[in-house]
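cron nightly-structures :: item 1 of 1
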Amino acid sequence: MATAGFAVDERQKIEHQIELATRAAALVKDETTVQRFRNFAEELKQKLLRMMGRGKVRARAYELWEQAGRPADRDVEFWVEAERQIEEERDQRRLSDPSDKR
């Protein structure tokens, strides 16, 4: 599947950028520049988390669509339901383990 390959490539690219920004922050002496690199790395981490979340939602929505017999024109319905289920699972994990930040 071409989309999965693209997601893996994009993830690797973002992880590499995070690593470079983190290394650069460790090498720079100017505190303002260090903070900019750290902020950039944090923004990239958040982007990566969002990207990975979309992959989970996409997979769940596809699973729900298949279970429903692959009906046409209901993609938004399955996407919203997948988001709801994943958020509910995340909330349950947080309740059982408050230190879980996912």
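cron nightly-structures :: done
The chain is about 85% helix and 0% strand.
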